[in-house]
Amino acid sequence: MAEELALDLEELKHLQSIAKRPRVLSLISSEIHNLEKMQDSKKTDPSPAAQIPTPISTSAKLPSNPALIYSTLSSFSWDQDNDKVKIYISLEGVDQEKMETEFKPISFDIKFHDVQGKNYRCAAPKLNKEIVPEKSKVLVKPSRVVITLFKASKGNWLDLHYKEDKLKPSLDKERDPMAGIMDLMKNMYEEGDDEMKRTIAKAWTDARSGKTADPLNGYR
Question: Taking a C-beta distance cutoff of 8 angstroms, is the pair 93, 116 a contact?
């Protein structure tokens, strides 16, 4: 055992002579000091000494970085005034330092990391209207999170997310004047109930058979 200690000390001192990093030098010096104390106790005490502690590794351990998995926060409430929109999310244990926020003129993406062992995400890829990213913010409270979006222009939002108006006919002047009406009828068919679909289908059938030249006959 004494020979092993001497060999360990000799090798550590050699490492100490070539090491350059302050932290590495400190770790080696500490281990040399421990071994020297054990060596001295060996000389004064013939009884078996405690086992030599495992040498401290000086190599840096890089943390693993697996692909993060997020649970989508699709359940929330929101309200607005003339200047801003506020989104309320019930979520406990959020750390302000472990959030990742991204605000853009027409969208936002908020990520909450390590919330009771899980990662969460709340995002809107296309908002109803434009916002001011520089002023928008996230406030963390004990049991909920409040996202504040400042409107680029004052006014009322009909919805948080942008929704295309399918019943709005195209205003493209280059198209056939009847094209917008045809698109309107198609959208009415897709959005309508069974009775509406039967009525529109009959109008199209009559138009094709020559019974009527106007597929909107019956609506006027």
Answer: yes
Q: What is the pLDDT of residue 13?
A: 78
Look at residues 133, 156, 163 and name the one whose alpha carbon lies nearest to residue 83.
156
User: What is the DSSP-derived secondary structure letter of residue 143?
Assistant: S
Contacts of 215 (CB under 8 A, 6+ apart): 181, 182, 185, 200, 203, 204, 206, 207
**What is the Cα Rg of the chain in Å?**
36
Contact 146, 88 (CB under 8 A): yes
For the four alpha carbons of 60, 64, 65 and 69, in that order, the dihedral sign comes to: negative
CB 26 within 8 A of CB 3: no
Nearest Cα neighbor of 172 from 163, 164, 181 is 181
**What is the rounded average pLDDT for all residues in the chain?**
77
**pLDDT single digits (tens) 53-87:** 554 443 334 344 457 899 999 889 999 999 999 99
CA distance 189 to 6: 91
